[in-house]
Amino acid sequence: MKLIINNLPKRRSIILVVALLFTTIRLLAQKEVEYINPPLISSDYYTIEVKEILATSESFKFDLVIENKSSDKVLLLDPSKISIYFNDVAYYPVKSGLVAKITSKEDPVIMIAPKSKKKEAITVEGNANFKLEAVKIVIPNISYNGALQPAPTLPAYTVSALPKVVDPAIGEVNIVELELKKQKWTAKLDIIRNSTSEIILVDLTKIKGISKTGAELATTAKSPLGINKYDFNDEKIALKPGAEYKLYLSIDDLDASLNEISLAGVFERYSIAELTIAPILVRKVGSDVAKTETPKTTPPVQQSTPVTQSTPITQSTPVTQSTPVTQSAPATSNSQCAPFIGNPAAGKVKVNFYNNDGYCFEVLSPGSSYTNGTTNNATIYFNYGKANIIIKMNGAVIIEEEIKNTQTMQAVSYMIKNKKGEWSLDRQAMEITPEAQARMDQMQADSKAWHEENKKESEEWHAEQSAKHEALVKENEKDDEEDAKSSGTSGSSGGTSGGGSGNTKISGSGSTTFTITYKGTPVCNTEISFIQGGSRVAGGTTNDNGAFKSDFNGTIGVAFTVKGQRGNTTWEIKDFYALPNNDPEIGLRLEDFEKQMDEMSQMAGEQDSEMGAIMGGFTAAVSVAGWGVTDGCK
Predict the structure, then answer these.
(1) CA atoms within 13 A on the CB side of 12
(2) What is the DSSP letter of 88?
């Protein structure tokens, strides 16, 4: 693999280095703050889960998952009324400067039918300080159908005189567009809910066409295409307050004897009962806040006049956590251990170890224990440099790994993770020091200003590099031709088609194996994308050896961007690598990029000592080693 960037003109090198760094690298993981998922709120009838909690300087977002475990209750929730507290100040996900992105498009109120589950993505945006140690989420009351009320009394819907009906409990209930064609009646049942005090269930099986002799005619009622958000089960729909609904009716009538459409027993009225959910406290990964309290629910509250309820929802079942990951030895419950917070004076880098399953563990170094016993969340302060970490669970060693704490790091968190029976430390988030961030911000501003002032010069430089690409391509073509002559064959090496010209594209059902490494260690289990000309020209997920197979649908000899993502960590090296040929096996070494950045930093220092010092600090902050690309890889 040959590098694309070399022989930089010294006169422009310093500015170009700054510009290059900010067009090649984006450390997205540094800008996000992750929060620990709180315990699952659970009862015999429902579960509530808050997960995937992330904060940036511009937003705070999480997924709200509600499962209805009952067989005869419908749950209603208005996500726009969720309140999120930052430093005891409530922010609401509505259009008042802070915008809520709720997946429901037409109506913010969501309905969860029996034996079903719904997920809502909640996002609050604005200028608040979202990156707090702890945030409180208050979910509004969840409504459900409570006590059964007396059935409504509706008039007869006769063919000769279809009435206009406004029922005080239901609202408008009208049959329209009644028509007979080919021995079949068709009509629409229009329902507009005016009442806000009840939930109505509509039993589709009880809508009947009645003949002049009183006989029941074969009748079907169906929802129009695309309208299924009110489905209660296969036989009923549930209408919340303010709902509008249209139903298609079809009645078989061989001798045109239809006299009436009966709605007797179709509508079931229920009072609205409510469940109050206790506030949910979420805390940042690595925070020093006390252990998150387990939320509880209060008994249902009836809003209307108490009536004997057929199947009351109770809250007697204790709140439970999500089912833990199966492991070989039983783990100690987290109720038997507490969070551990080390001495901040012991080191410069705050390192947090945790797991989402609540298992107790111990953090040790060879010969001593950091936590002096078991814990469910450990915050330890380390000095700069390498540290050998041992994790024990139930007295058995499950992890032995080396972590690196660089001088640009302020805090970092690791999840103790079990994947297919193997435990590992999975780095989740990293915060750099204010000094490193300030250097990065200043250099980004300088880079932007330089681009504006030297746009023409930059374009000329890129044109110069393109010419070098072409020279490299021709050199490779010549080498291939000489190899072909010496071996008595024609075409390119490796048996692939195309010959290696500037427009050659590798294709053929994953014909190329790409292997990505960093200093001999594979970049494993990472989603890789090669981007060229704004399009993804190759990609896949690397295996344990850092390899993946893919066609390369780009152009040989032209630089492409490499993007990598694993978990919440994302990295990018822009327009640095190019394929010199179309060999069936190609390796990319990320240390080549790192080495080039170091050389540029040294070159800048030779011409400007102050700029060299800044560059040295910056390249350390964005070194490949600091990205954790090989964390957990062997």
Answers:
(1) 19
(2) T
Residue type for position 130 = F
> Which pLDDT belongs to residue 471?
67
Q: Are 80 and 139 in contact (CB under 8 A)?
A: no
How far is the C-alpha of 437 from the C-alpha of 386, rounded, in Å? 22
Predicted model pTM: 0.46
Among 381, 160, 144, residue whose Cα is nearest residue 271: 144
* Cα 340 to Cα 435: distance, rounded to the nearest angstrom: 28
Compute the distance between CA of residue 531 and CA of residue 560 in angstroms, rounded to an integer. Answer: 5
Return the biggest CA–CA distance within the chain. Answer: 105
- Reported in sequence order, the residue ranges of 499-534 that DSSP labels E, i.e. its strands, are 512-518, 521-522, 527-532
Q: How far apart are CA 478 and CA 204, in angstroms?
A: 77
Q: How far from the centroid of its chain's Cα atoms is residue 175's Cα? A: 45
Beta carbons within 10 angstroms of residue 28's beta carbon:
13
Q: What is the pLDDT of residues 293-326, one digit of tens each?
A: 434 444 443 333 333 333 333 333 333 333 333 3
Domains 157-264 and 328-420 share a fold: yes
Parse the chain into domains and list their residue ranges: 10-29+441-627, 44-143+280-302, 157-264, 328-420
Q: Do the bridges between strand 377-382 and strand 340-341 make them parallel or antiparallel, or are there none, so unpaired? A: parallel
**What CATH number should be reported for the domain whose range is 44-143+280-302?**
2.60.40
Is domain 328-420 given the CATH code 2.60.40 in the classification?
yes
The DSSP element (H or E) to which 576 belongs, if any, is: strand 569-577
Distance, in Å, from the CA atom of 41 to the CA atom of 355, rounded to the nearest integer, reads 18
| Residues 189/211, Cβ–Cβ less than 8 Å | no
**How far, in Å, CA of 143 to CA of 228, rounded?**
20
Query: Kind of pairing, strands 569-577 and 560-566?
Result: antiparallel
Give tens-digit pLDDT for 2-37: 333 333 333 344 444 444 444 444 444 346 788 888
Identify the residue whose tokens are 């992330």.
54
Using CA atoms, how far apart are residues 512 and 581, in angstroms rounded to an integer? 11
Polymer length of the chain: 634
| Segment 350-403, tens digit of pLDDT | 999 988 777 889 999 988 899 989 998 899 999 988 899 999 988 889 999 999
Architecture of domain 157-264: Sandwich (2.60)
Residue 467 tokens, joined:
């010419």
- The residue behind tokens 């994308």 is 529
Q: Extract the tokens encoding 39.
A: 């315990």
Distance of CA 464 to the CA centre of its chain: 41
Place of tokens 């990472």: 526
Predicted confidence (pLDDT) per residue in 574-620, tens digit: 777 777 666 788 888 888 877 776 666 555 555 444 444 444 444 44
Cα dihedral across residues 624, 628, 633, 634: positive or negative? positive
CA distance 236 to 481: 74
Helix (H, G, I), strand (E, B) or coil at 65: strand
Q: What is the DSSP letter of 3?
A: B
Interatomic CA distance for residues 271 and 155, integer angstroms:
23
Per-state percent for the chain, helix, strand, coil, to nearest 5: 20, 40, 40
Q: Are strands 409-419 and 349-354 parallel, antiparallel or unpaired?
A: parallel
Q: How far apart are CA 362 and CA 397, in angstroms?
A: 9
Assign 222 a pLDDT band (cuts: 50, 70, 90). confident
User: Do 165 and 172 meet the contact criterion of CB atoms below 8 Å apart?
Assistant: yes
